[in-house]
Amino acid sequence: MKTQENKWDKFFWGLTVAALVIGLIGLLDRFTSGHTHANYGSYVPWGLWVAGYIYLMGLSAGVFLMSSLVFVFRIKAFEKIGKLALLTALATLVGGLLAIWLDLGHVGRVWRLVVNTNFTSVMGWMAWLYGAYAVLLIIELWYATRSDLSETAKENTLRVLGIIGIPLAITFSGAVGAIFGAVGARPYWNSGLTPIIFLVGALTSGAALLGFVTAVWGPNRGSKEHRNLVTLLGRIVLGLLGTFILLEWAEISIELWSAVPSESASIKLVLFGNYWWVFWFIHLGLGVVIPGLLLLLQPRSVTAVGLAGILIAITFLTVRLNIVIPALAVPELEGLKTAFTGPGLTFDYFPSTMEWLLFVFTVSMAALVFMIGKRILPILDAESNNHSAARNDLDANLKEA
Predict the structure, then answer these.
(1) Nearest to residue 226, comparing CAs of 236, 216, 235?
(2) Of 60, 66, 244, 367, which residue is most buried, by most CB within 10 angstroms?
(3) Is the pTM of this model over 0.90?
(4) pLDDT mean over 363-379
């Protein structure tokens, strides 16, 4: 057990450090050249970093809402992964905020979002929601890892914090969808269903990530208790994945069926455009079909559930990309595509090398927060692991006697 744990830790530490070093190249380019080497421009002003921000913030909200099963609803089956869920939520929050911060034209002016907030703007409210969520998440993780409090006092405090955090996570996750859904000039986004899809997507990807994290680092790995916990998470992920696909199907089919050019143009780009393979192969193939089969055919396999979870979690980035980019890649006015030419005046967008490198940096920072937090904080129930090991030793001694 210990050898396996060290092997996984060494692998992910190596992967995190390697990604961080590679990502630093993109960070250096961003601060020395600004946005010069990015492929977005005047017609497509949002690119990989905005999609990455939505993706990482969705992961954080989804994992945090899963933690409420422990701290708010007190479901015994999940009680040993509550702290692990909070750490994962904090790590992905750091990555998400870093992604959108680096996307700003003037990164040094981010404080204006809080100090000079326009409270008639959803973006203004989100700055405060993110701040409140970050503070609450840190406090909740701090309380969860304290050993100097009675269990009753700790549980009551964590329940109050969790109750406050649930509407916060739901609100900022849905608010991101509301920002897109309220843009009347972009029919692809303009739907009352958009905030719901964002929220269900956050739950799906967050639960999948937690399933992977629990499969790799969950308490008492290799035991029946651990397998039962991972199996239960797998069932939740499968249900959420099915719900998300149902909503996605409703959105795509209705817009194609309506045959309104302004609404169906972006959908056709997603399904049949230059990057059709992103939807069909990466999202549906690697992110839905294969994980779905793994969860259906091998529901009690820790390896299968963990693999399904990481496939869903990683490929969900394509879902966010297919929300952000296609709506911007359709000209708002007929003939606009050929009316003007020049740098940034194009509707054909694919992330540049610098954009990918900087995104790798934000993800590696999230992974670094997780790995450091797991190393220095009592995230796993060490007492439970020790008791389990002690029982195994006692059983072995009794058999020998």
Answers:
(1) 216
(2) 60
(3) yes
(4) 96
